[in-house]
Structure formats: structure tokens, C-alpha cells
Amino acid sequence: MFPEESENAACYDITDIKETENLGKHLGKLITQSFKDDAPVKGLYLFGKIGIGKSILVKNIINSMEKNTDKEIDVARREDTRKYNMVYPNVLHNDYYSNRFSRFYESAPILNKNEMIIAEWADNLKDDFFDKDRIEIELLYLLPDESFSEKKTVLIRETKEMENPDVTRYATLIGYGNGIDVIEKLKFEF
């Protein structure tokens, strides 16, 4: 069962890895366009268990943005912060996994007009970290007897278990501020 979609939310079945890649590509293009339209999405925050596909989604988002090279960009991995100087926008990407057992990150970096932040493991961030013009993405697994309303997630450690036909992987996206427009366009295009 999908959560109810509203003006600022959408949900996608991304069980197939190609669907994860396609969602990232569409989202990256729409975020780039939001900067060109002077209504930028300044933050993209990802939530989900280890191995669920956050980095795959981010890699496809970043590589679909206008960049200064034809080379594919490899994304940050654990305990790594990278800044990608793109044509539009520049991206500060951090995987906040390393801080999951210590205190939460308290403040967001100060972003210039043509910059945005992408944060994996956003559950390790305090509320003050989140930009008002943002999209939050929660990735989760559901077994056939589970529903979104029960808010159950399953930690699946083995890749072969991800390929289990009984397990479905979903992405729920919620837009805030300028992120609402991007979600609306995504629902129309994807």
C-alpha cells in the first residue's frame, strides 16, 4: 500500500535497480532546472537503511546535472565530503553514516546562490540542518505482509535478498518550499 500522495509528496516502486537510476536521472535534471528558474532546491536529504540504494540514487542525480566534464562522477562514500563543481548547480555531498553513534551534526554549511547540499544518512542531522527549500527521500523495503501505514522496514544485508521477488523497494519523496514544484514536475514526467 502506498502512502497517500499529496501536492508535496510522491512514492515510487524502485525494486528494479534501473528504476532507481531513472528516478535519479529525472530528479537531477529537475533540480538543475530549478536553479535555472531561480527557484532552487537547496537541499536533498536521504534516509534509509544500509545497502538500500541511497548512493546509487545520488550518483545518478549528480551525473544527470550539467557538469563540466563528460566523465562520470563517483560519489562520496562513508566519512567523505566532496564538492562537485558543476555548471549548474555546484553540489556539496556528504555521507553522514560515520556519525551515527555520536552526536548529531548540528549546523548546515552556508551555501552560495549556485550551491546545494546532498546529505545521505540525513537521520544523523539535527532539524536546524535542513534547508527550507528541500526534498527529503526515504528509501525502504517492504515485504508482502507489510504496509507503509505500519512504518515497518526490513534491513536486508545480502544483495541476493534484494533480488528476492517478495521484497519491494520504495522511494518516498517529500518536497518543502521550492521542492514542492520539483515533486509536482517529477510526478508528471516519471
Protein traits:
190 residues; Rossmann fold; seven-stranded mixed beta sheet; two-stranded antiparallel ribbon; 26% strand
What would you say this structure looks like, in words?
This protein is α/β, with parallel strands linked by helices and 190 residues long. The protein has a single domain (9-189), classed as 3-Layer(aba) Sandwich (Rossmann fold). 24% of the residues lie in helices and 26% in strands. The protein has 4 helices and 9 strands. The chain has helices spanning 17-36, 54-64, 159-162, 179-189; strands at 9-13, 43-47, 66-67, 81-84, 86-88, 90-95, 115-120, 134-142, 168-176. The relative contact order is 0.24.
How do the helices and strands line up, and which of them pair or pack?
Layout: E1 9-13, H1 17-36, E2 43-47, H2 54-64, E3 66-67, E4 81-84, E5 86-88, E6 90-95, E7 115-120, E8 134-142, H3 159-162, E9 168-176, H4 179-189
Parallel strand pairs: 2-7, 2-8, 6-7
Antiparallel strand pairs: 1-9, 3-5, 4-6, 8-9
Helix pairs in contact: 1-2, 1-4
